[in-house]
Design brief:
Blueprint (H helix, E strand, L loop, with lengths): L1 E3 L6 E3 L2 H14 L3 E5 L6 E5 H7 L10
Antiparallel strand pairs: 1-2, 3-4
Helix pairs in contact: 1-2
The structure holds zinc ion.
Zinc ion binds next to loops.
């Protein structure tokens, strides 16, 4: 999926694989946002969990055993 940098408006692509990895990380760390660096202005954009869930609709949390 594509989002836009909230600072400069540059398009930022998030692949399904990247979104799944981000959701794993959010789940493991208990964070609400994943940060993606804009390649153009190099600022960090916060991507909420719900946006990542839309990019990776089949992702399910893995419970730690
Ligand atoms: Zn930017």
């Amino acid at each position: 999926m594509q989002i836009h940098c909230s600072y400069c408006g540059a398009p930022l692509n998030i692949s399904r694989k990247q979104a799944e990895a981000a959701l794993d990380w959010l789940h493991a760390e208990g964070k609400a946002y994943y940060e993606v660096r804009c390649p153009k202005c190099r600022k960090m954009n916060k991507v909420p969990r719900e946006v990542l869930t839309r990019a990776a609709p089949t992702w399910k949390p893995q419970e730690a055993s």
